[in-house]
């Protein structure tokens, strides 16, 4: 460490940056491992509450659901490093997919819920997306109709064996709900599949990546007019989130109302 750095570090006016010698990172764990450790501390503490649908997940309950979904994703052939997109408003399973993918090293690609067909097509192709999870519709955007137009093969090919001429990387379509749609897996089906996958498979997947691997891609507008996929690692997200909480002096008894879209930075 240089003398100049020492002087800056002792300067009370200087804002410390996580990763500095005098301001170390909070953790070097992956999101999945960090979450499991929190579950062990207080498994019955509430983790997520959706008052409008009377849904409450404890740390333990959410951990079990994300484990089963993660194993379900493994069952259909997803593996560490694959890209899975989520195109949805802030429904509970948006969070389930976020943590399930983080647990097995799959990169979650967040898709703006108001995107139109040409924008979704761009992200599907540009991100090398292997699986896409969608809801039925949001505002004036009919997701099912758009996907049928972009991927007409979904109406004739068996789910899990998708071969799209336009999007060769895309192999799986997932509907984020209990309803059945031709060519789509539903979330209950994936969770059920996951219950038949041994725990050892989950542990095997977790051993194939670390906190410096990409866990999420967020598409943001750029000067060229084309959205750019920003790659975020476990290390990025968990430490940034922790220090934001520290800056607001948040503790385990506090609750945060989060109405902003999950698909981008603040969410």
Features:
Rossmann fold; two-stranded antiparallel ribbon; 18% strand; disordered N terminus; globular; 267 residues; seven-stranded mixed beta sheet; single chain; alpha/beta
Explain the layout of strands and helices.
Layout: H1 3-10, H2 31-41, E1 46-50, E2 55-58, H3 59-75, E3 83-87, H4 92-104, E4 107-111, H5 117-126, E5 131-134, E6 137-138, E7 141-142, H6 143-150, E8 172-175, E9 184-186, H7 187-194, H8 199-206, E10 214-220, E11 228-233, H9 234-247
Parallel strand pairs: 3-4, 3-5, 4-10, 5-8, 8-9
Antiparallel strand pairs: 1-2, 6-7, 10-11
Helix pairs in contact: 3-4, 3-7
CATH fold-level label: Rossmann fold
* CATH homologous superfamily title: ANL, N-terminal domain
Number of extended strands: 11
Could you estimate the helical fraction of the residues in percent? 25-40%
Q: Which band does the percent of strand residues land in?
A: 15-25%
Shape: globular
| Structural domain count | 1
* Biggest sheet descriptor: 7 strands, mixed
Task: Write down the overall mean pLDDT.
Answer: 91
Cα distance spanning the termini: 36 Å
Radius of gyration: 20 Å
Low confidence ranges: 1-10
Reading the helices and strands in chain order gives HHEEHEHEHEEEHEEHHEEH
The secondary-structure class comes to: alpha/beta
Strand order of the largest sheet: 9-8-5-3-4-10-11
CATH architecture: 3-Layer(aba) Sandwich
How many helices?
Answer: 9
CATH class: Alpha Beta
Question: Can you describe this structure in just a few lines?
Answer:
The chain has 267 residues and is of the alpha/beta class. The protein has one domain (28-247): ANL, N-terminal domain (Rossmann fold), CATH 3.40.50.12780.
């Amino acid at each position: 460490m240089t003398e100049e750095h020492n002087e800056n570090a002792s300067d009370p006016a200087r804002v410390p940056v996580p990763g500095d010698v005098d301001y170390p990172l909070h953790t070097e764990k992956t999101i999945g491992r960090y979450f499991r450790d929190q579950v062990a501390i207080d498994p019955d503490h509430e983790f997520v509450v959706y008052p409008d649908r009377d849904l409450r997940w404890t740390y333990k309950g959410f951990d079990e659901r994300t484990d089963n979904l993660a194993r379900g994703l493994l069952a259909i052939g997803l593996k560490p490093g694959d890209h899975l997109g989520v195109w949805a408003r802030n429904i509970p399973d948006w969070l389930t997919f976020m943590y399930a993918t983080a647990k097995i090293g799959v990169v979650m690609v967040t898709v703006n819920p108001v995107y139109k067909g040409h924008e979704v097509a761009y992200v599907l192709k540009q991100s090398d997306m292997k699986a896409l999870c969608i809801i039925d519709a949001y505002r004036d955007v009919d997701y099912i109709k758009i996907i049928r137009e972009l991927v007409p093969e979904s109406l004739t090919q068996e789910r899990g064996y998708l071969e799209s001429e336009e999007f060769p990387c895309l192999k799986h379509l997932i509907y984020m709900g209990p309803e059945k749609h031709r060519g789509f897996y539903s979330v209950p089906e994936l969770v059920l599949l996951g219950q038949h996958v041994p725990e050892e498979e989950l542990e095997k997947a977790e051993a194939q990546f670390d906190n410096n691997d990409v866990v999420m891609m967020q598409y943001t507008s750029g000067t060229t007019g084309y959205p750019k996929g920003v790659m975020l690692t476990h290390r990025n997200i968990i430490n940034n989130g922790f220090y934001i909480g520290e800056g607001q002096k948040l503790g385990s008894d506090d609750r945060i109302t989060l109405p902003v879209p999950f698909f981008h930075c603040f969410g």
